[in-house]
Amino acid sequence: MGTGDYRCANRICLAHCWLRHKLISNEDTGRMAAPDCCVIVPTVREFSNLRSYFANARLHHFDLSRIYVLLVTEDFSNKSGMEKMLNEEGVDGKAFNETDRKQWLQQLGLERFTDLIPRRSHAETSFGLLYMWANPQFTYGWLVDDDTCPLMEHDFFGVHLGNLLSRGPVNRVSSDKKWVNVLFQSFSRHSLYPRGYPYGCMGERLTHEIGSVGDIVLSQGLWTNVPDLDAIRILSQGSLQGIPTTRTSESDFGDPFVVESGSYLTISSMNLAFRREVVPAFYQFPMDDNPWGIGRFDDIWSGVLLKRIADALGKSVMTGPPFCNHDKASRNVFKDLRAEVPALELNEHLWEIVDEVPCQGGTYGKNYLEIAAAFRNVEKSIFNVEFLPFVSRHLERWIECLSTMKEVL
What is the pLDDT of residue 168? Predict the structure, then answer.
């Protein structure tokens, strides 16, 4: 099947998804009785970028009463300014700093799980997942970074929901090295691999076919402007400010695709929508606040586990639109490098360990515990392999924490 056939089939699928979203959004009941979409945003800096997402919703007639915004921040941040912004925009939501998070967990009798949320780390987004789980009104979740904004010509919330409701034909991609580069569509131009892509899986050969998909449980939107790269790849471009010299544009991306069962992909939490059901298998790995100083792999490694379990359950992950514009601020690339180096060898092998776990249907929680058990007994000689039993305890306690709110096994 030619490229034109792929795009035709995918555009038919997107049209059906968009129409279905519009029908759901405009039921006879009018405005939603309570928000069913929880938008989780980790931020300590420029939270005003969120106004562009609300403007996008209004432009495309997406009902903002469906949205609850949860800002995950720190005690030193401008919490009152964040909540003032939400009030000015007429959007429901709340900012939780570290003190608020501890009080919330204590109120629910979950204070013994406080350490599941690492301090001053992007992985604090796990708190947003806990909050979603404690509030069953939330059917859908979003993870959005504070240095992004939507492309206004696209219905950001509507396209993500359309992806999650997709049932039509789509481009299914697999790799001879079991990893698919999500930037493959214009690789001949930029030669980029995203943050977290194993170096040993480069040079892959991809296979494409059009086919139907199982339930889409996660929609990953890609990014224009500054690509999401690791420190080594940024340094190789001669940049010391943490920003690569290469830029991406909407023309670098084609239609949405699904990575076949048995192949993996990098999942960046910069621009994600997901179904509530995945929360038990989507804990964001404990970064930064750990004895090894490991950081910047929270969303990547959580995505590996989710993809493995989704495959076992006959579920799918869709990647492509809606795109966001990534306006990454300058930062010390060597600080990022220090956080990544302790985990580089682990990143080459963690997915292999996960891939060997015999996930065989069942539930998200049971499969998650199977992987946690495998992390306790890794015999490979890998630098900082001791991190995996540490993670194993966190994964097990994540399921225990969720189980106190709702049965997940």
Answer: 84
DSSP β-bridge partners for residue 95: 71
Dihedral sign for Cα atoms in the order 96, 97, 100, 101: positive
**Domain range for 176:** 3-405
Total residue count of the chain as it appears in this document: 409
In total, how many domains does the chain have?
Answer: 1
Pairing of strands 140-144, 92-96: unpaired
Return the CATH number at 21.
3.90.550
Task: Characterize 109-142 residue by residue with b for buried, 16 or more Cβ atoms within 10 angstroms of its Cβ, and e for exposed.
Answer: ebeebeebbbeebbbbbbbbbbbbbbeeebbbbb
pLDDT of residue 407: 59
The HSE-up count of residue 100 (CA atoms within 13 Å, CB side) is 18
Task: Report the alpha-carbon distance of residue 372 to residue 301 in Å, rounded.
Answer: 13
Which pLDDT tens digit goes with each residue over 121-173? 999 999 999 999 999 999 999 999 999 999 999 999 999 999 999 888 999 99
Please compute, for residue 99, the number of CA atoms within 13 A of its CA located in the half-sphere on the CB side.
4
CB-CB contact of 51 with 204 (8 Å): no
pLDDT, one tens digit per residue, over 63-82 is 999 999 999 999 999 999 99
CA pair distance 18, 302, nearest whole angstrom:
28
Q: How confident is the model at residue 33 (pLDDT cuts 50, 70, 90)?
A: low
> Which of helix, strand or coil describes residue 95?
strand
DSSP-derived letter for residue 262 is T
Where b means 16+ CB within 10 Å and e means fewer, 283-318 reads bbbbbbbbeeebbbbbbbbbbbbbbbbbbbbebbbb
Would the pTM of this model clear 0.85, i.e. be above it?
Answer: yes
Q: In the Cβ-directed half-sphere of 106, how many Cα atoms lie within 13 Å? A: 6
Neighbours of 282 (CB within 10 A): 27
Q: For 319, what's the count of Cα atoms within 13 Å in the CB-facing half-sphere?
A: 24
Instruction: Give the per-residue pLDDT at 347.
Output: 98
pLDDT digits (tens, 9 = 90+) for 82-135: 999 999 999 999 999 999 999 999 999 999 999 999 988 999 999 999 999 999
Of 141, 94, 107, 96, nearest to 405 (Cα)?
Answer: 107
Reference 193, options 233, 222, 157; nearest CA is: 233
Residue type, 371: I
pLDDT band at 21 (very low <50, low <70, confident <90, very high): very low
